[in-house]
Amino acid sequence: MNLTFSILKQLRQILGVIASLTLFCMLVLTVIDVVGRYFFNSPFPGGVELVEIMLAIVVFSAFSLITWSEEHICVDLLDDWFPVSLTNLRQAFINLCSAFALGLIAWKVWGLGERSLSYGETTDVLEIPIGYVMYFVSFIGWISMVIALALAFQYLFSKAPVSNSTQESDS
Q: Burial code of 33-67, b = ≥16 C-beta within 10 A, e = fewer?
């Protein structure tokens, strides 16, 4: 299990770097596009398409990071009704349900990527194949599923309650 978390921590760092660099490139491209559009009457060709693709990369790269730290939006209506002794069991169940949903979504998006490539769908200006972006989104979904499964097993097999602060101190 430690090897799994070690690999996931390295993957987490890689995805963090990908998200950060892509966000920075988005910023630079937007500045170039705006300056070109307003001062030289010549916007960056395909700038909007590139920003859209980079936005997908940033959002879905960060999605795995959110899964890792369990910072999804949640409603804690039942927390007061659950005994503290069952907290790990509850969290394991929630992570198993999340893993199932993430795997299902990743599987469906992978199929959409295959279909998109078989149809030859591309962006309008730069003609970038859209299917590859969908493959990336699906791959990140699979990674998020593995992270949710690893968290579920951590909750199931740890003797003490696991919290976000414990995970963060390990990183």
A: beeeeeeeeeebebbbbbbebbebbbebbbbbbeb
Q: Give the Cα separation of 56 and 30 in Å (integer).
A: 15
- pLDDT tens digits, one per residue of 120-146: 999 999 999 999 999 999 999 999 999
The answer to whether the CB of 44 falls within 8 A of the CB of 32 is: yes
State the DSSP code for 166.
H
Q: Classify residue 129 by its DSSP letter.
A: B
Whole-prediction pTM value?
Answer: 0.79
Q: What is the dihedral of CA 137, 143, 144, 148, to 10 degrees?
A: 160
Q: Name the token pair of 161.
A: 């309650």
Residue type, 43: P
Q: How far is residue 115 CA from its own chain's centroid? A: 22
Residues in the chain: 171
Q: Give the E-state strand segments of the chain in sequence order.
A: none
Distance separating alpha carbons of residues 43 and 61, to the nearest angstrom: 28
